[in-house]
Design brief:
Length: 281
């Protein structure tokens, strides 16, 4: 059992490495717009493997970042990453539960939560059925005038030239977990401005940031693109026609002559959308 858990943790870290590598440009764009200032304090929760905390610290001397996550494996990776980047004096990583934020009131100027607050059943990997209680706790530990920032992976175009196939794959339940036909529309992540409004935040804003995907056919690209495909559509085969699934496998098989990623003119993109609100008490 312990060995299986270790392998699952290692696989999840690899998925985070791949997704962070591809989404870096979009996330850095969001960080640039966040309004970090010298001496500010930031809570990054859940911080995952620490890339976002590191990107915040780079070029922002004097800010203090607390990266919090429930997974010890993530924290160990993040701590090593910060040490390698020479940023240990700015970032501290610690174990914390987003459902029980054990911080003093008015502790942070910014609370950053990226891909960590997808509402839905806990058994699907979500942290809560609804976001409001967690957001209220975030507001409590944020200073007056401080900012809560929610980020979500919001779209992607990965199969250029095959829009109908990509639309069919995107329409599957497997590609939209945790959303089901019964899900309250107000709990969709693009309704995050409503969530922030309901907990009393002001000056609510939203902005979307893009990261271009370029293919250079090196080992890291192969790992990243394969990881992306598996994350989005790896379990969609039961919901699409056999013909569509066969076409999908053919154009995404890195060893196939039909593989779109082996073409020198491949281009794709992904987007992240950031929602921010100002805390008033």
């Amino acid at each position: 059992m312990a060995e299986n858990n270790r392998h699952r943790a290692e696989d999840y870290i690899k998925n985070l490495e791949n997704s962070n590598r591809i989404s870096e440009k979009a996330i850095r764009g969001a960080i640039h717009e966040l309004g970090l200032f010298p001496g500010c304090s930031v809570l990054d929760i859940p911080c995952g493997i620490g890339n976002h905390s590191v990107w915040m610290a780079e070029g922002n001397d004097g800010i203090k970042i607390t990266g919090a996550d429930f997974a010890v494996e993530h924290l160990n990776y993040a701590t090593k990453l910060a040490e390698e980047k020479g940023l240990s004096s700015q970032i501290v990583f610690e174990k914390s539960d987003i459902n029980n934020l054990d911080y003093l009131e008015n502790s942070f100027d910014f609370v950053w939560c990226s891909d960590g607050l997808w509402p839905g059943p806990v058994e699907t990997g979500c942290l809560a059925e609804e976001p409001y209680e967690i957001l209220a706790e975030m507001a409590g530990i944020t200073k007056i005038g401080g900012t809560i920032a929610l980020l979500f992976w919001s779209s992607q175009k990965l199969l250029p030239g095959y829009p109908l196939l990509e639309s069919e794959l995107n329409a599957t339940l497997a590609a939209n977990i945790p959303v089901t036909p019964e899900t309250d529309p107000d709990l969709h992540y693009m309704r995050a401005p409503l969530w922030l409004k309901r907990i009393g935040l002001k000056n609510i804003k939203s902005r979307t940031f893009a990261a271009d995907i370029r293919w250079s056919a090196d080992d890291e690209d192969e790992k990243s693109v394969s990881g992306l495909l598996d994350m989005f559509w790896g379990r969609a085969h039961a919901e699409v026609s056999p013909e569509s699934w066969s076409q999908y496998k053919s154009i995404t098989d890195l060893n196939s002559e039909n593989c779109i990623f082996n073409r020198p003119d491949y281009a794709g993109f992904l987007t992240y959308t950031m929602f921010t609100g100002e805390v008033v008490k």
